[in-house]
User: Fold this.
Amino acid sequence: MRPDFEDILINFKKDVEGVKDIKSFKELRDKYLSKEKGIIPNLMKKIKQIPREEKPEYGKDVNLLKGQITNFLNDLEKKIELVELERKSQSERIDISLPGIDFFVGSFHPVKIVEKEICNIFERMGYFIAEGPEVENDFNNFEALNFPDDHPARDAQDTFFVSEDRYYLLRTHTSPVQIRTMKRYGAPIKIIAPGKVFRRDTPDPTHSPIFHQIEGLVVDKNITMADLKGTLEKFARECFSADTKIRLRPSFFPFVEPGAEVDISCIFCKGKGCRICKNSGWIEILGAGMVHPAVFEKCGIDSEKYSGFAFGLGVDRITILKYGIPDIRLFFENDVRFLEQF
Ligand code: FA5
Assistant:
């Protein structure tokens, strides 16, 4: 090879040492091979000025030089690409041993969990879900439910009224949904109505001014107290355990006749008597009875033709029983440490 070409090759090898990344590699390649300014293409262009007899030798040496530099650059490009790839995978590497980014996951409130469970039990028995507003009127909440004018439940001591004339109020139970449903759809009916209710009760471990009830209402021909008892027995077994028993005690609600308080056998001592059932072996969970004919009349249903039963259960107290919660007020304090356990 011509000595001046050998010098070019030596300089090229020195330049190669300065190549650190793909950018400096491209600069080097352009310096030697770019069509306009590259050293090798320039040498090729110069062939015209070379005396004729030297041309073959010159041409051969230029091609040799070009071949060596091109081969070298091709190898170098592959190496540089590998180095770049390695650098990229290092800088973008995911350390799977690092802890993940924690974020807050919400959950259902315990009262809502139990409300859903109870609704599911009744839905499986063919009940539809009905709803009513939390702000009610006196007619639906009291009058149509056969509460006499001087009934203590109508007293400001017990009820949150929302209008001066005391016609509008926060419903004190879910029973007004019975009235709304009967007036709207007539008989037959088979519904449950879950929702919030409000009473001016002083808070204590088992009382809260806001709590939750589920109302049940069945109206059809030939509905008897035996249907009520069988339904509640089935509910108690599904909600608590298969060996749970129920007991009906006579009681008074103006919108049912006869009326009853319904107890379940204590789920903690299985009826033997313990601190929770106050040694009685029984725990009260709901009120129930046969729909009073006066209520049917207010709603335009013929009480000679139809009969029905109704019940109303306190969801908060059932939740307390199911989870062994010591105080109803925990449901309304919104303490995440309490709520996230469910
Ligand atoms: C009623 O509210 C009737 N409407 C139930 C009813 C419906 C009877 C249909 C007959 C036919 P009572 O006032 O007993 O009944 O309340 C029902 C349930 O609500 C109680 O058994 C209790 O579990 C719950 N409860 C009552 N007051 C409170 C309160 N302040 N805090 C939490 N739960 C309560």
